[in-house]
């Protein structure tokens, strides 16, 4: 009998990851001099930053739409608003830079010279494997006749474009 290990989902934010991300999270700001409708401490409590980050990672890893975000992550519109705010404040760029610096310490990055190469080409056996392209619509005269109907013919005889109508 085999024991199954608990499988970690690719969108799960671990404690180790969160401990490195948390210091980079932008602080919530209250604008001085602005009149707020509610008193400080009143109303709904703000979502925890870890819950917001977990929701963003879920959307980015699964590719789901924001409105399809599971309820366990909170309001999809609130998470999306935080995502946009964090993006404007450079949060994701900071994460990228911190990740590059960490990788540079571990493995080393050849910063002086970088190269990217790529090639694209048609897969030689693609048509045989997948069949005809569904966007290549057949012409009317190549289609089967409708059941119990007559073959399709244009209502007007064909004419040359140079001839007057």
Tell me what the structure shows.
Helix 2 packs across helix 3. The protein is extended. The chain contains 5 helices and no strands. It has 165 residues and is mostly helical. The mean pLDDT is 79. Helices cover 33% and strands 0% of the residues. The protein has a domain at 15-26 and 45-106.
Q: Which helices and strands, and how do they pair?
A:
Layout: H1 15-21, H2 49-62, H3 76-88, H4 91-106, H5 126-130
Helix pairs in contact: 2-3
Structural class: mainly alpha
General form: extended
Helix content: 25-40%
Mean pLDDT: 79
Pick out the low-confidence regions: none
Q: What proportion of the residues form beta strands (DSSP E)? A: under 5%
Q: Could you describe the largest sheet, including whether it forms a barrel?
A: none
* Order of secondary-structure elements: HHHHH
* DSSP, total strands: 0
Distance between the termini: 83 Å
Radius of gyration: 29 Å
Number of helices: 5
Give descriptors for this structure.
single chain; 165 residues; mainly alpha; 5 helices
